[in-house]
Amino acid sequence: MIGTVAIGGGQLVDGTGADPIANALVLIENGRITYAGKASGASIPTGAKLVEADGASVMPGMFDVHVHISLSAPSSLLQEVTARSVGEAAFEVANNLADTVSGGVTTIRTVSDLAHLDIDAMKSIEKRKIRGPRVYPCGHGLTTTGGHGDIMPCWLSQSHGDISEVVDGPDEIRKGIRRQAKAGAKWIKLFQTGGVVDPHGRLDAEEFLPEEFQAAVDAATLLGLPICVHAHNKPAIMRCIKAGCRSVEHGMHFDEECAEAAKEHGTWLVPTLTVMDRILVHGAQAGIPDFMIENVQERTNKHHEYVKHAYDIGANIACGTDAGSLLTPHGSGGREIVQFVKCGLTPLQAIEVGTRNTAKLLKSEDTGSVEVGKLGDVVVVEGDILTDIRRLEVPGNMRNVMIGGQRVAAGGNPVLN
């Protein structure tokens, strides 16, 4: 039993887009929020555990719905996936989960991981064997032979496994989806185009054939599993939207027509702006090949414009960073919120996207905002995040991170008790 937690004295930014409340009080009783408002509006119950928030901002736990929890932000994906045993990768997953909550991220969706370690992480966290965020796993993403998710040389993947499962033809695709469902996946991930790490224009090509793609949609729908799709180019994005996929990942060519169609169909864009920014800022020094940096440079300005346009017309935007992938640390949800501000959103708007809006993508009605009845996933951040949004980029600024009212991190480090 967690008991009662009282967070007092800070500025409340509740994730709904409402104006902040100065000198606020948040009460969490047995894991759920029972009061969130002005300190003068409620009394602190006797025996409550006090959490000091003076000089800080109180906000919902952040989300990151594009995470590779079995990767650890390498400069070379191939080297990362071939240099470790599965056992070593599992220990890294535990560390990556700790980094996630230390950065103020309390909920993640994984989008293709080695050996179903993301599913095992979800189960271990639910059984309280390890500390970590709430996890919505995809298991293995599905990719074509030689596709974007087919990373390992064939002689290694046959014995070691890969972060994705290679499937060709409608029957293999159906089996692949059923295997993810059997393992415990809550989402299905498809790789439909190349990416910025791929040479020779593959970003502008599709991978699954139309009949293969439709087979995937049919199989996932029959199992009640939503689909997220790695899709950069416009034909692939429109295919995802019209087929009823729930989210488009990356979407660097998510133009005005795509945004209008997504709004009509209720499709979400997860633009993963953070990984693109990390490649541009740190790529050359880290030894990222020139063609990868150029792939991002050529598209970044329009990508930002497309995100802002989609937001302005009311299309659904969610917060995902590609954490674990190239140069992108776990716990980077705050970095993505900063990127939304760079696209032209206000800090309040960006925080709402990174919390309540993204909870809606996951259909997680109990999280995403600091409101009465919601689970007590709350972060206390040093300073005023509305005047200095970049405070969210620094794990050390996370004075307290709580999941269900239980402290899991403080000052950029996990808390074990």
TrEMBL record:
Molecular function in Gene Ontology: hydrolase activity, acting on carbon-nitrogen (but not peptide) bonds
Domain Amidohydrolase-related: 58-408
Superkingdom of origin: Bacteria
Pfam family, one: Amidohydro_1
InterPro entries, A to Z: Amidohydro-rel, Metal-dep_hydrolase_composite, Metal_Hydrolase, Metallo-dep_Hydrolase, OTAase-like
Official protein name in the record: Amidohydrolase family protein
